[in-house]
Amino acid sequence: MNEEALLARATEERERIFQRYERGRDNLVGQIDPWEDPEFEDYHKTDRYGFIHDERLPQKTAPQKVNIEVEREKKWVKMLGTWDSPATQEKLHRRIYKGIPNSLRIKIWGKLLDVARLRAAHSGKYREMLTLARRWSTDVRQIDSDVNRQFREHQFYRARYSEKQCSLFHVLCAYAMYNAEVGYCQGMAGLAAVLLLYMDEEDAFWALAALLSNSKYAMHGLYIEGFPKLTRFLEHHDRILTKFMPKLKQHFDKFGLDAILYSLKWFFVCFVERVPFSLCLRVWDIYLLDGERVITAMAYTILKLHKKQIMKLNDMDLIVNYIQVKLHKDFGYPDDVVISALERSMEELKRARLDTPGPPPSKELPQRTLGVFVEPDNKSKIGQRAETFSETEKQARANVILRREKAALELQELRVSQSDTVSGNWDHSPPTSRSTSADSLDSHTWTHL
Amino acid sequence: MGTREDEYDYLFKVVLIGDSGVGKSSLLSRFTRNEFNLESKSTIGVEFATRSIEVDGKTIKAQIWDTAGQERYRAITSAYYRGAVGALLVYDIAKHLSYENVERWLRELRDHADQNILIMLVGNKSDLRHLRSIPTEEAKAFAEKNGLSFIETSALDSTNVEPAFQNILTEIYRIVSQKQMRDPPEGDVIRADVEPVDVRPQDSRKQCCQ
């Protein structure tokens, strides 16, 4: 096929995908492939947030807790009336750490992210971006495929082309046009899907915009090419582990377990699908109030609370499964206990001046004016992968390799120093360390750096 | 999980690559857990799972690395190609673009993986007969021309998933065991050409996890 034909094919595909979301589920009867659409089954149970479970619900909400929440709601409603007063700002911290009542998240999250102001200040922008996306978006294919894989166990997202799936599609397409440097990056669907549980489409769009470009959250740097903010936060995470939990760090290193293998959803989507949803919402409440240092502290808290269990697991597979799967199903501690621990972690890290890796360097912030249309080049219109790595990609890749090698090297040094003092016989050193250390001396590596 | 999975003769690292949405994670869960989940999630970064199989009375532990298919993520995922002895390069038989991108994926492998990596081209979603856009013969010819093995699979109805993994693992085993016969590993010395393969006998391995 020549370029013209490839472009025509891409246009046709974008058009077809958009049309399906515009028509929505009710107008697509008989046109949705069965494998695309897991049937809603009555015998599943749906929890208070709308997630469907095969078995009994995790962490039942006790009746007295519901009463407490009703009492809290009253206080919160009152507080909403006097939002800008100094008294409210004073109370806010304490109350948010106790948890925002679920029925009021819709309002409070909007306040914390300043959604109403953004929406009013850029009136018409969302529609404009959506219209542009329909004509120009190069991210439609990826967004379409992720929309149908996001929260499929949730009653609102489950059905193909359901209202929520359509909203998610629109928000992501519009945002990809609004912030062309980021476009769409996998992970953003998770953020938008959570926001859409509490906001309408346009509010969710502005909330997403705030999460990416407001300096308090600055998630822009997480999603751009080369993931500079991820690199910076992972390094900081390693520093925290080395200082506060060196044994656990060695345990990870021993199995060649880089933080990339267990923590990406912590950083990219603020713990969505890594801790139970009720706890995730509590962390989001605090994140929206206090910003990125909450992520750093929560990452530390998770490992701190589960250190003993993790130290017992002697296999990379088991450790990752524990951190990613087991803790999502059952965190093992009541949410309130985790949040208290999180608060203590934040203080502890602050005392050690490790609460933040520092403000984002300018390259992690949007460089182009947001909301200004830039026509994509033909290559991205067609959708083929770029043939060669850009300098940024090469650098990011080198960073990942370097992190792994550094960990292997530190472990090797530790082994040497231990074998000097202890009468250890390291002739039969573990294969994991052997293969990684052989790796790290591999000349092939350094030529890439 | 939780069984004595750590007793094995060989550990082979295999990567699963290919465009987003072609079914890499589904192939992995079909092979390691014999599950197909309609509620599958997109993979962020890299994930992995293991399963052990027997070949010639030897236990081979396959450590399979699943990667995010979106181009943005290649800066991370390509760093995990190192040390892999096999790769399953997956496309969707119903999505022509995912097949067109195979050449680009091959290049990424050549640039970033070990030279001797064995590559198998996998046309997944063979259950979608009515939507097929890549004829089997075309992909087969392409694979032959490029020195890849080839198979069509369906993670959904589980057609050929087991053979796909078995074939590549067996092939890797043959190469490694022949190499060992030619140059038996001496004591603790790791040979560069066998370096990615963990070829330690069981008894010494047990000492690692005291």
From TrEMBL, chain A:
Annotated segments matching region Disordered: 419-449
Entries under PROSITE patterns matching the protein: TBC_RABGAP (PS50086)
Superkingdom as given in the UniProt entry: Eukaryota
GO molecular function terms listed in the Swiss-Prot or TrEMBL record: GTPase activator activity; small GTPase binding
Residue ranges that the Swiss-Prot or TrEMBL entry lists as coiled coil: none
Pfam families registered for this protein in UniProt: RabGAP-TBC
UniProt xrefs under PANTHER family: RAB GTPASE-ACTIVATING PROTEIN 1-LIKE, USP6 N-TERMINAL-LIKE PROTEIN ISOFORM X1
This protein's name: (diamondback moth) hypothetical protein
Naturally occurring in which organism (per UniProt): Plutella xylostella
TrEMBL record, chain B:
NCBIfam families: small_GTP (TIGR00231)
Protein location: Recycling endosome membrane
CDD domains with a match to the protein in the record: Rab11_like
Family matches, as PANTHER family: DRAB11-RELATED
Pfam families found in the cross-reference section: Ras
Source organism, top-level taxon: Eukaryota
Family named by the database record: Belongs to the small GTPase superfamily. Rab family.
Protein's name in the database: (diamondback moth) hypothetical protein
Classification via InterPro entries: P-loop_NTPase, Rab_GTPases_membrane_traffic, Small_GTP-bd, Small_GTPase
GO-annotated cellular components: recycling endosome membrane
SMART domains linked: RAB (SM00175), RAN (SM00176), RAS (SM00173), RHO (SM00174)
Topology within the bilayer: Lipid-anchor
